[in-house]
Here is the input.
Amino acid sequence: MKNICIIILAAGKGKRMNSSKAKVLHQICGKPMILFVVDAARKVTSNTVVVVGHQAQEVKKSIEKKYMDVSFALQEEQRGTGHALQCALPMISSDIESVVVLCGDVPMISSGKINDLIYVHRKEDNDVTVMAVEQDDPYGYGRIVLDNNGFIEKIVEEVDADDEQKKIKMVNSGIYCISCDIIDDVLNEISDNNNQKEYYLTDIVPIGIQKKYRVGVMLNEDANDVLGINTNEQLQKIEALIQEKH
Here is the structure.
């Protein structure tokens, strides 16, 4: 796809891995987890940008061993996922219509599901499309509340959810397709007014809704596709799942 750019967020340190190594360089089945995500992205488009930060040179080297034409954006100071995406915007060429945002620590995402997200985004003429999954135990996740037309009305975080909303099993995966026409507008509205003092990419959803943009959802039937890695236990679990698949 020529007019699609995929941006992979891979700048974080991964403190909970209890390791000096950048999180995305931890290995699964003998290769750095970031390469699983880059492999999936490259099956969709050659326009791929990886946002690096912690151990930037090492992360770049691990990718360039396989792909010499991946672009890189540097997030010198890790100030959240919204800020990471802003760091990548100068790398997007003018002919790109939409951007898909992936996470470097979500290695089971497939090119097929990325294509599904782009398809829904275009078919529904959305400005933002969120990849959602249904979790049997959604505790801790932001619940996606839909309106009568199947568009996202809001995302309610666990702490703010009432009893009815807590029963909702559809949650936000953190993977998005965003139209370039509106990307600056929504990113510029993100604030760091939170406990972490970070700019969260999830905020583009309420901002988009408030600005009357079309914010749609693509339901991914397989929750394993979007499992993230924050701990060594999660790394081992995902390695076992990938070994089962192969």
Summary: DSSP finds eight helices and eleven strands in the chain. The first strand starts at residue 4 and ends at 10. The chain has one domain: 4-245.
